[in-house]
Amino acid sequence: MSRKPTAEELVAAVRLFLKETVRPQLEGHAAFHTKVAENALAIVARELAQGEAAEQAAIASARALLGTDEEDLDQLTRRLCEAIRTGEISLATPGLLTHLRTVAVNQLNIDQPKYSGLALATKS
């Protein structure tokens, strides 16, 4: 089965169409909403490119912190939050701060890569 065009290629094509063909013909709210759609497609493209690796890194890190073989990131996140809330895990726990920073940086790289604080966070 041919997988052409890929999801990444389709998203890029629609985004380019909106940017170069549609938006220049619009003004006001319609132009603004088209720009919002372009930005949403850019997030989708970054999610397709980076999301799986970011999720796998978060799963591996959370599993190590919790000492579990759990594979579901949502469940791991809930368990980690509960462990922090109860004091079972704290910032003194080796690896927690690194986990939290890495998860936040990876998500920002997908959602808002031009966020000014991201550059600062990746330097530390």
Overview of this protein structure:
There is one protein chain. The protein has 124 residues and is an all-alpha fold. It has one domain (7-123). Helices cover 75% and strands 0% of the residues. Helix 2 (28-66) crosses helix 3 (73-86) and helix 2 runs antiparallel to helix 4 (96-111). The radius of gyration is 19 Å and the shape is elongated.
Write the SSE topology.
Blueprint (H helix, E strand, L loop, with lengths): L6 H16 L5 H39 L6 H14 L9 H16 L4 H8 L1
Concise synopsis of the structure shown:
By secondary structure, the protein is mainly alpha-helical. Helix content is 75%, strand content 0%. It is elongated, with a radius of gyration of 19 Å.
Helix content, binned percent = over 70%
- Estimated radius of gyration: 19 Å
How confident is the prediction overall: mean pLDDT?
Answer: 95
Low-confidence stretches: none
Characterize the largest beta sheet: strand count, sense, and whether it forms a barrel. none
Listing every helix as H and every strand as E from the N terminus to the C terminus, the arrangement reads HHHHH
Q: Structurally, how many domains make up the residues?
A: 1
Structural class: mainly alpha
Bulk shape: elongated
The percent range for strand residues is under 5%
How many H/I helical runs? 5
Please report the distance between the alpha carbons of the first and last residues. Answer: 45 Å
The total strand number stands at 0
